[in-house]
Design brief:
Strand order of the largest sheet: 6-7-5-8-9
Structural class: alpha/beta
Number of strands: 9
Distance between the termini: 27 Å
Strand content: 5-15%
Order of helices and strands: HHEEEHEHHHHEHEHHHEHEHHEH
Shape: elongated
Amino acid sequence: KTLHPLQEEIIDRYQKDFLTQNELLFNSRVKNGWIRDVHGDLRLEHFHFKGDQLNIYDCIEFQERLRVNDVVNDLAFLCMELEYEGRSSQSLAIYNRISSDIGDKQDYDLWRFYKIHRACVRGMVHAVTGYEHEVIIEEQERNREKSEKLFGLATRLVLLKDQPTVIVVFGGTATGKSTVAVQLSKLLFVPLIQSDVTRKELAELPVDHYPDKETREWLYADTMTEKTYEAIISKGRVALEKYNAIIIDARLTALKQRQLILDNFSNVHVVWIETMASLEIRMQRLERRESTASISDARLDIFDKLLKTESELSETSNLNIIKTDTGQPLNDCMEQLIRQIGN
């Protein structure tokens, strides 16, 4: 119930393929003595610091079968928990330091395989607790949410590996970019940075508040737009350091805005996703927006004006852009995007 069918398919295929293709690797881990009596449950909550003293407790003493394991598997549990908490750089540093100290050759593919495995195990445990009738409602909800995020982390590690990645979802007004970005953020457990939200935060306005005409003119002036994109970059750098991946949701109607992202994230992998939809569908969405709260201030009365600003979006460039038609069901969009992101 907390694992999306698309996530299940991706993780299942990856794990089976890795096991099949790496039989010699696993045999060598056994032969070379890397299967040892370890802790078995290296979660963050089992680490206690008192001054300079470190105590690690709650080892799986009751079950040798669960405790004896590959040292990389044991370490991957701790690293996975760190990455879940937004400590990706510390996770990598700890893996490199400990594997070096114990004389084990760094194998990042094996480390990632075990991180994915551990995320799935914890995702399953929280899912079970999330539907236990004996557990109070608030605790059920917390466990279900954590389970969804852990399966998202596992899916992200399969698709993006440990490569720092910026996913940019852009497109014209009412093409469904925010819907796509939000769903991707959930499926991959990746922080989402939205231009509409960032702009309102800078202006100190409620996110779903539709401002009057005078405020809109100031809010969408070139000066404010430049500040908005500068803030997106700033927020993006912080989130990327923590989670090793981010999603940016913005219109990007000018090539200079696209170039700003390229310039500031030149040392990471950037995935470009452009959302598209027919004019008829876009106008229908804007009509519905008239009567519902929305983070976007785009409305029917300025649609023609907004269309004129989209001309640069269609200009040719050397970027490898994944295009998706949001007129199709959302699940179909996600399946298409997830498959292409992973290639």
